[in-house]
Write a structure and sequence with these properties.
Layout: H1 9-18, E1 22-23, H2 24-34, H3 43-55, E2 59-64, E3 67-72, H4 74-82, H5 84-103, H6 106-119, H7 125-145
Antiparallel strand pairs: 1-3, 2-3
Helix pairs in contact: 1-4, 2-3
Length: 157
């Protein structure tokens, strides 16, 4: 996910665990909530990161029934405080995503993009050109709304 730099995800997990002990699935759900449902980390990201954090002594785990529950250690709290600015940046991004989904039709846009990505390989040249022009108009208007009249709003071509 753009916006979360490599390695910064571990601090997001520390932040989530600062709210209280949680199992891996609970951590995934909480991150999903923080990002308004637009981002859910996969088990393939969460569990290796939890193992790394445990190896570093930042979290500890214990068994509760069939689940492993993770909690923050005092060293984990210290590291979280050292990286508070990075965590706040991630949380601000999450709040922006949540607001985008809730207030600005973000979930509809994401749905259309998913559909677009599946259909693009099957589009003829005429339809792809119409789509390119529609995207250009959308980007230009978005840049104008954001105060960037140049139309190149930070994305990559």
């Amino acid at each position: 996910m753009d916006g979360i730099r490599r390695g910064t995800f571990r601090y997001l997990i520390l932040h989530v665990l600062s709210e209280g002990p949680m199992h891996g699935y609970g951590i995934m759900q909480r991150v999903q909530e923080l990002f308004g449902g637009l981002y859910t980390p996969s088990p393939g990201i969460v569990y290796p990161t939890l193992q790394l954090l445990e190896d570093l002594g930042y979290v500890r785990s214990s068994r509760r029934g069939r689940r492993r529950v993770y909690s923050l250690t005092s060293e984990g709290k210290r590291v979280l405080e050292e990286h508070r600015a990075e965590v706040e940046e991630i949380l601000a991004l999450g709040r922006g995503f949540a607001r985008f989904v809730e207030e600005l039709g973000g979930s509809r846009l994401i749905g259309l993009l998913k559909r677009l990505f599946t259909e693009i390989p099957h589009m003829d040249a005429n339809k792809r050109e119409r789509l390119r022009r529609a995207v250009e108009r959308f980007l230009a208007e978005l840049a104008e709304v954001l105060g960037n009249a140049g139309g190149k709003g930070g994305g990559s071509d």
